Amino acid sequence: PVSHLCADLPPVGPTDLPLSLLEMGCSVVYYLILSFPPQLPHGLPPTSLNLEAEVEKQFLRDPAWLPIHDTDAAFQKDVRVDSLLNCTPSSLHSGLSVIRDPTTGMLLDFTEVLLEDTGLSAKNSLSLQRQPGPPSESLRGSNTNYPFLPDLLRVPPGLKAGMDFSDKGLSGNHDAVSSSSTSEKGKDVKSKPQEDPEENKKWAIPVNITSPCEDFHKRIPNPAFKWPFELDVFQKQAVLRLEAHDSVFVAAHTSAGKTVVAEYAIALSQKHMTRTIYTSPIKALSNQKFRDFKNTFGDVGLLTGDVQLSPEASCLIMTTEILRSMLYNGSEVIRDLEWVIFDEVHYINDAERGVVWEEVLIMLPEHVSIILLSATVPNALEFSEWIGRIKKRHIYVISTMKRPVPLEHYLYTGNSTKTQKEMFLLLDATGNFLTKGYYNAVDAKKERTSKHAQSFGTKNTSQNTSASQDRPVWLSLLHFLSERQQTPVVAFTFSRTRCDENARSLASMDLTTSVEKAEIHSFFQKSLSRLRGGDRQLPQILLMRDLLKRGIAVHHSGILPILKEVIEMLFSRGLVKVLFATETFAMGVNMPARTVVFDSIRKHDGTGFRNLLPGEYIQMAGRAGRRGLDATGTVIILCKTGVHDMGDLHVMMLGKPTVLQSQFRLTYTMILNLLRVEALRVTDMMRRSFSESHRDTQAHEKRIRQLKEKVSSLPPLDTEGQLSDLVPYYHTVTELRITTEALQRATLESVNGLKALSHLNALGVILQVSSDSVNRTFTALIICEKGNEEGEGNGPNAGALPHLYNTALFIPEGPCSHTVQKLKLQDISAITVKTLKVIPDRIIDNYNKRQQPRFRHDPPGQAISTATQELLRLAEANPGGVATLDPVNDLQLKSVDVVEGSMRLRLLQDSLRDFNCIHSPTFSEQYARVQERMGVQEELDKLLFLVSDQSLTLLPEYHQRIKVLQALKYVDSSNAVQLKGRVACQISSHELLLTELLFENALSPLAPEESAALLSCLVFTQNTQGIDRVLSVAQRIGELQRECGIAQSAEDFVGQFKFGLTEVVYCWARGMPFAEIAQLTDVQEGTVVRCIQRLDEVLKEVRQAARIVGDSVLGSKMEKASLAIRRDIVFTASLYTH
């Protein structure tokens, strides 16, 4: 603190004595101090100890000088052995219970009652009946705690009987609830429960919100919470479901009033004395909700990475990551939890953090009801079905497409005072796409560009313009809008620098009155009064103050957090008239405007430029129109260089929003946290994830049961004596069949050789090949016995044993006849070398003619009888089988599969002759039995595989990650978590790298500021002594992951650590003011602040980890580093939380 003191002293004046003189003191007068003056808190300064004590301390008490024989004199110490015997008392295993007189209630006696489960604690049990842990751990839990198992208590403690939660009550109960809600719904539901409830138990139940809900006040006479306005139908339906304690999924547009559902749940839990957790994806959103709910309910707490306000409140607002760590660490809050509200659920699509939502949903215990609030998504039902299935409870899906304030979408082509009114309606409030408006816009634009092109030569067609080119467009547009009183306006711009430039280019614009200016000024000063003097003079703050006074503001991640909040608050009061914002403004912050302007409809998504997705467009456009203030909201798309493509616009405005997709992936933290507890398995987590929700395990299991019964009911196999090799024979035949089919496919799909065929050992000739390449059919003429022309099997051999791969040809025994059939690929077994000359068209026509009843008995035509004779002659000439074309040599099919297949085929055909079972008299019926049994068995095995862990998509990656953990000694060979693993559980991101650095003592030689600077690479996301160390550890982990088969390359793994802010953080930790730091880097101020805030969380985690390892020096060093960076503007408390 000395430097600060000096800074506050006035400069040295002429009267001040030089410091050296003051230090020496005045050498003339001596005072004798008899009583201690009150000014010195610790008495007089220390004098030197007496000599004797000094000598004794050095020679007698020093272990090196101790006498060898007479040790008693050296130790005069009272020995207290019992101090070693301190252990915590074990819990009582019995309690007293009172016996009363049943009539009078008098006390008669006490009896001793044995208590059950007294040994359960957070360290050994997953049950909700375990003893509460120490109060210090009740909120966040501890990383040695077990989580609570996601299941239900059947019997309450102390009671004999409990609830039966089995399904039999479920269908009836749910029937009663639904049928009472609205008459129409009752009709659908009443007809259902007659079927077996197991058959089609749908977990997601769509709620019909078309019919008004008249009996709402009858059914809820005294609601837990009353609103000053009448609720919409969808809100009433949701409230009814909450009263019945059901889980709901509400999908509606922003500003449709989803918050009502959350508010009712909070009110209910206050009424029931339980707790509610409200989670949101973004910290800013959490802060805002905290303020809103605090005003409404009062009893509200906030938990984010760096803030903890009233954690004992009944409603806790937190980010999803914190809820996840509470679940893993078995926090006591979970016991009292009634509702968890997930806001902005469509965030589950976020590649980076979507997995956290899934983990939380999977880990929540069953007694917690879930409320999901989301923007409109097409697959709400599918998503709810998944949650219902893993939670085993119904989820009521309420989705509404209605907007309380309808939107009108315009194209704007103006760019000067003359053309400022050029605004064309493209999509009206009822959702009709008006092509006329589009063409008008094109014409208006063309008229100008053609003149422009004549005077300036070639036309500039690129979409990109500079801020100076945009300036006239913005000026004319904002002028036009403020004349029509269409402010406040949000202008979405997809680049931070562009936001700043656009705002700066409007230097001449002033949109506020003098009264508003005064209000803005006083609010701005009041909000920033917390900052230190130097921080108030930051260039960004001065610039923003200038802009705000004129009613203009900028909002993106590069703006300081406190400024962002000032801007949001001024905007919601309507004092900011134009806000240039990036997409993040639409994500969470609930700040509707009258008008939304799109600067462009293309954005950069980290890989390249693309058009906005319908979901993104709807989310942003939805900010237009304030409920109760505007009749319609206006959305304007700027056409700066030319009018956007009509197809693109149509897709963007009317396309389907993005579906919810699983971003589930394995993280080391998740694996270690689950391995820590024997009862939880990582595969269970994977099986329950949304990415595996397509596995309809219930249906599979039902089919498995049926098949198992079928197998047990089949007659036993007779595999004695001659039939002993029946089963291997079956397997050989099966393999032969599969190989043959593969070969046939290859042969017949190849271009070469489709001439003549021998089919089922009956000769036939191909007449015509269909052109359809997917299901190609061959029309063929085949010889058969007279009277058997209609036979499905084309000849008698089909009904017999197709497995007897004998090559003897079929020769009709009676008079020879023929049939013409369409064959599939599988029906053709080989192609002969011989070819016949036939006239296909005539044969087909003749055959088709003779299929009609009146020509049934005509003799076959000339063409057919010739062909039949030829085929018969061929068959009689070579009874042992005709020479067939070899796919490899004759047809020139040289691909590996074909070559291997044909070799395998020869082997198998030869091996068939060696089986004994063929000669058995009962062979055919036994074989049929085997075939049936094996068919059932194969289907069963396939289903069992689908239900088993082996079919999980992420299973190979799980094994690879376990290999990495074993190689780094985080878990041992039996997957028990070791010390390193315990440390890594503490750390939420980059757990391997941090733990390795910790165990290699890489941070020990560094000063606190240096270690803070070094760790900044873990939290900084844009593009310097210990850096090599970090990179080498990262390289090592990256290479190990490659070896164990994980797809990420070592370069990518190392590349994610960026050292751009190392110097900045170092200077900040050394105490440099923020204004100077901002000069050190071109990274925007807001980004720096966020990086330092996240760094503080990392330092806390490392401190925790160091404590587990027992490295107290490192722990205190991290604390020092943390204190060094927690100051001034970076850690100013949010305005919303005051």
Automatic annotation (TrEMBL):
CDD domains hit by this protein: DEXHc_SKIV2L (cd18027), SF2_C_Ski2 (cd18795)
Domain of life from the UniProt record: Eukaryota
One GO CC annotation: Ski complex
Catalytic activity: ATP + H2O = ADP + phosphate + H(+)
Gene3D superfamilies in the record: 1.10.3380.30, P-loop containing nucleotide triphosphate hydrolases (3.40.50.300)
Helicase ATP-binding domain ranges (all copies): 239-395
Basic and acidic residues: bias regions: 184-202
GO biological process entries: nuclear-transcribed mRNA catabolic process, 3'-5' exonucleolytic nonsense-mediated decay
Positions of the UniProt region annotated as Disordered: 164-204
Residue ranges of domain Helicase C-terminal in the record: 510-675
Subcellular location: Cytoplasm
Main location: cytoplasm
Protein name (database record): SKI2 subunit of superkiller complex
Keyword field: ATP-binding, Cytoplasm, Helicase, Hydrolase, Nucleotide-binding, RNA-binding
Any one Gene Ontology molecular-function term assigned to this protein's record: RNA binding
Keyword Plastid: no
Organism: Myripristis murdjan
